[in-house]
Amino acid sequence: MEKEIKNALADASTPLAQPDQFALSRRAFLQVLGSGLLITATETAVQAQGRGAAAEGRLAARLYLNEDGTITALSGKVEEGQGPRTELAQAAAEELRVSIQRVQMIMADTDLVPDDGITAGSRTTPSNVPAMRQAAATARELLTQYAAAQWKVDAATLEVQDGLITNKSNNQTMSYADLAKSKEVVAAFAAKVRPDVALTPAREWKSLGRPVLKIGGRDAVTGKHQYPSDIVRPNMLYGKVLRTPAYGATLKSIDVSAARKMKDVVVIHEGDFVGFAAPSSHRASQAVVAVAKTASWKPGARRVSHRNVHAYLKKHADRSRVRENVIGSVEKGFTEASKTLSQTYTLAYVQHAPMEPRAAVAEWNDGKVTVWAGCDGPFRARRDVAQACGVSEEQVRIIIPDMGGGFGGKHSAEAAVEAARMAKAAGRPVSVRWTRAEEFTWAYCRPAAVIECKGGLNGANSLVAWDFTNINAGAAAIATPYEVPNIRTASVGSDTPVPQGSYRVLAATGNNFARECFMDELAAAAGVDPLDFRRAHLRNPRLRTVLEAAAWRFDWSSRIKKVTPELGVGLACGTEKNSCVAACVEVAVDRKSGEIKVRDVCEVFECGPILNPPNLLSQVHGCIIMGLGGALTEEIEFENGKILNPNFTAYRVPRFRDVPKIDVQLINKTDIPSAGGGETPIIAVAPAIGNAIFAATGVRIRSMPMRGEMLRRT
Predict the structure, then answer these.
(1) 290-309: per-residue pLDDT in tens?
(2) What is the DSSP string of 196-239?
(3) Structural domain spans, the chain
């Protein structure tokens, strides 16, 4: 068993092939690892609920020191392309004074790792990296103190480098491998993590802050890595689910007898859930077709289309669900304003469109189920599977292999639940792989929104009043970063006709789009250059720095003078997740054809100390390209609960030919804590494009996506 454990730890990026290899109690697991040392630091209280759980703040299950001197680090976070596997390994390596090559990561396995919550909100960098560093630094101090006690010297005189503690006075050494064998050392790590432990300052970083290739990157590009949709188990079946014809519809009756007569097909019918497992996906799909015509449905109540959804959202705005913030008196401010401007902006529903749709494989053994799934909350998925299958959470193990993207769209674990229910009924492993059409249709969307803006200028063209309301999408980045004496911001809930949920940087993209385009409208009303207008109202030094850096790098002062009816430039900035971004773009416009072509994007981004420069650069590039889709082409079309464009032919994400010249500058600000970098860079893209279109054409498009046909209508 010890050999099997170590083999699994040796390749933590690959899904575990045999669940029974780890089917042991927590006590047995710790006994197996008794020859080494387990260390943990949890950010929040984690109740001991079975294998792999850890008590609050205790050194138990975060880092494992192997007898060969390597280190295994454990985290409940999910690797879905944004780089936490590498970043967390860097954090452990930094504070333990070893190279990252000696750190292996096990992530998102509910039997082995602590509950670090869902992977969302750019929280890994500001929350989980410090937790890993604190644990590793506490471990380093305790190991150093133990060596000092053995040598009867002051611990401060010892040096730790490359996993070796050295007494510089006589060159005595003690390795981490040696210490991992000591029972006294193991006992010492029953203590809690020291919250005041000294962490390595950024100026002294050897692992953090350095370019590090993505762990598992080679396997991903060569096809060796197994994503959730690649998992195959012995004697496995493939599952399909009968879906409702429209959102909100409920099943009244169905006759599944035709499917029960089909050879090798297992039918599960529990309430509204009707599933089929068969030796192939094709056979399971045939079973769905065989019974679908017998189904009788009660239709949903909402009768609305994407064409009138914004009027619907405004009509159904729930004023009891308001988050409001007021500074000064907007009524007084507008009374004193010499110029007042009001406009409304809208956002469409969009899908996340990850490279890998939802997928899961479930396998039951001795009343317990192991599920390999593509979602970003392993412990949340464990709860959902347990509830759906009527078992305790201790009977459910969730493993999340590094998956093919999420962008906030995989907080829920529908495929895991479906696979577990069908596998339980079939008595065999079942794989559920959502099709692209299912992903477009049944995964939740980024919320649509109606955003109402009103601004007041005094005689000196200074903003004196600001009123900003978002209906339906949320309050992320709703606060204006500009200095205005009288401000009111409000986020108002509404009734959504399609399922909606999280998306990369939540509502910040829409709020920043409306605010930054409206700032340009106010600048035009004042007769002031958009850059100068922002400078006059911007006191945030970090945001001002990225804005001025982007303008300088883009050569704004020269290019704004070269605008033509076919070529425009625009800029925008914003702050969210404690990071700051600014972008300048050049857009080519053909009024006759309606083509809008983004030719050039210059973006400057700052998120505190940079932990891994190439990874952060990749995240910024990804945000810019993803932002192009939301800005220009992406929109879920629906009618009375039915999705009308559930494929990449009709739902257009950016193609390679759409990618403009991209120039990114990262600012490494080391005097503040690091913030997450995988979301905020998206928020400046759409407003900069909208402002560039206006600069060229004089037409203000106040909706996302900004389609060229809107120019042809003017």
Answers:
(1) 999 999 999 987 789 999 99
(2) TPPPPPGGG-SSTTS--PPTTHHHHHHT-S--GGG---TT-EEE
(3) 2-221, 228-298+358-433, 309-350+445-712
